[in-house]
Structure formats: C-alpha cells, structure tokens
Design a protein that fits this description.
Order of helices and strands: EEHHHEHEHH
Strand content: 15-25%
Helix content: 40-55%
Number of domains: 2
Shape: globular
Distance between the termini: 49 Å
Number of helices: 6
Radius of gyration: 18 Å
C-alpha cells in the first residue's frame, strides 16, 4: 500500500491507499517487468547525450515537458532541443512527468497537434 499524506485543517493525516498508477489498467504489466528496472537505470546513467551525433537528423521531434515538473526536466528538454535541429518543446500546463497517464487527453491533443503541423510541412 502507498501512504498518502494529506493536509487537512492544518494537520497532516496519513491514509493507506492505492495510487492512481496502481489503479491503472497498465499496472499489472509494470509489475511484471519490474525486474528490468535496475538494468534500465544503469543504461540511463551510462548514457551521455552528444548533440553532434544528431546535428544532421531532420526528423521532427516533439519534446513534452510538464509545466509543474522540477526545473531539471525543462533543462534536459532544452539541451535536447538545442541538439535536435527539427525539434520543438511544448509545455503541458499543470502537469509533471507522468502526464501521459495523469492527463491523457491533454497529452494526446499535443501529440496530434504536432503530427498535424508536421504533415502540412
């Protein structure tokens, strides 16, 4: 169970409850592949973004950042944007890193808008 802190009338109350992620249809799949997380984290830690590798890439690239995400997420997106010649950053207002699950309609709207622009180019 996940402990959720909730501030109510100036006091903090802890309730045992399930997160929205645990209630999502994809939760069983996440649990089934959980054993791959250490390997994936090692790969992420070992990767260094080298903008020179991508300077000739012309594939349109959409970089989505949650408006309420920690500042380092925006910094990372800006670094990718600087190294990807045909990229664009869009901010998802009121969202954090998990916008695809927390706000799927907003996420899909931005992706569809990006794809519609790209097909007109």
């Amino acid at each position: 169970m996940l402990l959720v802190a909730e501030q109510q009338a100036g006091a903090v109350r802890l309730d045992a409850g399930r997160s929205a992620l645990q209630e999502s249809p994809g939760w069983p799949v996440r649990v089934a592949v959980a054993h791959t997380i250490p390997r994936e984290l090692q790969a992420v830690d070992a990767y260094t973004f080298d903008p020179k590798r991508f300077r000739a890439m012309q594939v349109p690239t959409l970089l989505l950042v949650g408006g309420d995400s920690p500042p380092f997420r925006r910094t990372v997106a800006e670094a990718f944007h600087a190294g990807l010649p045909n990229s664009r950053i869009e901010v998802l207002p009121g969202q954090r890193h998990g916008a695809i699950e927390a706000a799927p309609d907003l996420f899909a709207k931005e992706v569809m808008r990006f794809l519609a622009r790209d097909t007109r180019s």
